[in-house]
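[SOLVED] Need 3D model of a two-part complex

Original post:
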Amino acid sequence: MKDEITREERVDNLKGMGCSRKRVEDARFTQGKGNYVDDLKLDGMLFGDFVRTPYAHARIVSINTEEALKVPGVLAVLTAADLEPLGLHWMPTLAGDKQMVLADGKVLFQGQEVAFVVAEDRFAAADGIELVEVEYEELPVIVDPFEALQSDVVLREDLVAEDGSIPDGAHGPRKHPNHIFTWEAGDKEPTEQVINEAEVVAEESMYYHRTHPCPLETCGCVASMDKVNGKLTLWGTFQAPHAIRTVVSLISGIEEHNIRVISPDIGGGFGNKVGAYPGYVCSVVASIVTGKPVKWIEDRMDNLMTTAFARDYHMTGKIAATKEGKITGLQCHVTADHGGFDACADPTKFPAGFMNICTGSYDIPTAFLEVDGVYTNKAPGGVSYRCSFRVTEAVYFIERMIEVLAIKLNMDAAELRRINFIRKEQFPYTAALGWEYDSGDYHTAWDKALKAVDYDGLRAEQAQRVEAFKAGKTRKLMGIGLSFFTEIVGAGPVKNCDILGLGMFDSCEIRIHPTGSAIARLGTISQGQGHATTFAQILASEIGLPADSITIEEGDTDTAPYGLGTYGSRSTPVAGAATAMAGRKIRAKAQMIAAYLLEVHDNDVEFDVDRFVVKGAPEQFKTMKEIAFAAYNQAIPGIEPGLEAVSYYDPPNMTYPFGAYVCVMDIDVDTGVPEIRRFYALDDCGTRINPMIIEGQVHGGLTEALAVALGQEIAYDDMGNCKTGTLMDFFLPTAWEVPNYETDFTVTPSPHHPIGAKGVGESPHVGGVPCFSNAVQDAFRPFGNTHTNMPHDHWRIWKTANDLGLHG
Amino acid sequence: MIPAAFEYYRPKDMAGVLSLLEEHGDDARVMAGGHSLIPMMKLRMADVPHLIDLQDVGGMSEISVGADGIRIGAMVTQSDIIDHEALAAAAPILREAALQIADPQVRYMGTVGGNVANGDPGNDMPGLMQCLDATFTLVGADGSRDVPARDFYEAAYMTAREDDEVLTAVSLAAPTGGYAYEKQKRKIGDYATAAAAVQITREGDTCTSASIAMTNLSDTPIFSEAAGAALVGTALDDGALTAASAAMLGDIDPTEDNRGPVAFKRHVAGVILRRAIERAWSRA
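Solution:
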């Protein structure tokens, strides 16, 4: 049979890996046809919402629900006293701590959940909330973690023994009632020795401020307990639906097979939707109590003020080097503000996430990291906002330390990076703090980036600008922000990565239909990443069926295989690998079927794009479509009917995407207003599945980086009042504030990943934050600036200029 | 973010509005575009048991530009201001300012009347109308009266408008000379960190008149007569600009908020005013 189309056309028809396939999700999203949890309406559905404390630290003297219960439509008001008999007034956190579901005698942060009002609709619930009378006795408020470690005020009496001693926490000994853990990586004494003996040491303290992922869709759920068959269905904004199912089972006692968790369309997560929140527990309890479905949806203020924040790391560093700039050692101490409960979302053995990637992209022989976690009267959380676990903090730290060292050495910061990069031939490279970097080619990426922006030309222009400024000819300074980052994503190998004892593998199950189309289900869940588009592309290339003929389904625990969900750029490295591996199982069986149909030995056929051909006789072939049909209609000796496969993938290592970013910024010294003239982003995420989606991810990640670097924060006053609880004050950039981004790439495949992909969703955020910040700091370097803290909003930039005497 | 229960009215004429106001007193509020009032109600910071929507009243959506001056109905939206060519020709500062208010979606709903009547010190139109020496027409049970914009604002959300009055129109003489509305803000949709409205006339190299008002730097808009006076008769040399800035700084009283501390705001107010004056002068 003569082939009608060329091999290239056959490849194109698959829309497989490397193709900028249009996102299949967007037809519904752009037409307002998405199906989010708040779109769910069930018969008789009730609505629950919280009474929240206005005080950051207070004892609860009494709660009177009498007037609230008189509001027409209000059915119940739950308090901790109602949950206690069920053992549900507290719940475990992902970090090994426990958290109040409803205030049990006291409150620890403003906005903490005190009572849950259940009503026929959200309007009655809101009226009921107004009428719940809570009497508080105010307690001293601590919002500073350093003060917390000195204070006599005990925030968590539940974690102090009756004799006043301090029991160990989930991560070992605690040295103060408000102390959570000390976590160390690397070698302390050798590092101190290197620093003591170094020719040059640069030191800096920096505060990576508290901020918030602020997804467009807030958190919420609908719980529906079917009392007839004993099954609980929980729809919600869950980045990890299977983990939520297991947690709900463990804390409620409902057997796991009787729980079905469904994540519908999710409007962004960025880490905010990884953990479990009191709203989920209260909705489940309310549904059990009333026998009706109960919905809980946060409003924007609830989301910003109470669900998981990010960062809040006070970091102190020392970096040692030779006079020529070769780095010899790095030391980092972090005081981590975790808020009132330790609800960080990290793998169990990593209470500070992967902060120990803080040696960055550099060949640093000796290093030591120590992190102290601390309780304060702030909201709990500590999630990884568009980054792998605490990687943004780590990369910000090292990329600032490099700049500070460059200032100390009076060296160009680009050159300092270049002479310290891990060299291509050193991979796989074991860093001083323990990670084994899988692959990289940093020098090539760096040179390409600097050339693309004409780095030397920019420096010359900057020097001229400084002269013009000093001569009174301009009031604008020019900053050149550099950043080179290495991410660590794809958590992770089960041998060292678990959450609540659940290994961080992921999964894919594929069913090929007789007519040559397919459905694949994964343990992950898209929140905008475009999984339905890209995972179909992986499969298209692996199994030779068009991506357009493959449905990707996620988020329903009754149908999807078990997985740990989507965050930390883990979907492509882990579930993407599972998809490829499951596809290869399909292909292996298809090969046997093809050989049978072609009447040759299994080893005499080979895969070619969308078919198996007889080796040496490509005119003899069976397409995958034909093979799929044969799998269902032929009795093939020794082969079971059907064509299905499942793969659970335990990654042998993390993946290590990297990139080189340059930002050019003009700063109005008199108003503190920064203007981004240019932003160049080179990303190496290994094999590129869909370049268009990668570009979209880079744009989004950079925009969130711009937000964090230039103004986005969760700020508290001394009384623990959140000052940034609305989008008036919490900076969410719009198209107006966003510059044009130039994207570029190199490709250094991961050697251990089945398709060589590394993950990209979070890289631009990780690399972008220090790049924007370095641009601001660099503008003031000629005037003596070493470091100023983010966020670089107008008044802080103005203050930097003012402190340097630039306002005359 | 759900308001307390309220009664909603949509009267067809002003008589209907006034009778509702008379009946419910300060339990009632009129609403034009709703872009200030509704968020306050949703935050339960404004308690409005009786909400009177002006959308169906009619007669307040016209812009007239004539020899006897400019009249802008209270229901004219910011978007209408931007689109009106005759208005832009007669008083270009209005378009320049309106383009710096919020974003297009808000400007389609937000009205001039609501913006000036609410008394929010963050709103841009009050300072602008003080700069232009506009007059607000208030209609009540006893008929109508005119109040100069420069006398209208008493404190945050406190104005010369009585509870039973409705602000129906803004009138002003067509300004002459150069103009500028200069605003620093953190992002689109934000209130001003500092904003300055300037109208200025010149004969040759001499300034013959100057009108200056500042936004969001006190609990009311600030018409700084002294700042304008400091420019008149000068050639707008550096000394005159410094004097105008110093006079303005004597009139404002900013408070610290998330935009920054007082020292920053005062510094930026001076910078913004200077830029506004320079731009207005270049256009005069």
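Edit: The radius of gyration of chain B is 19 Å.
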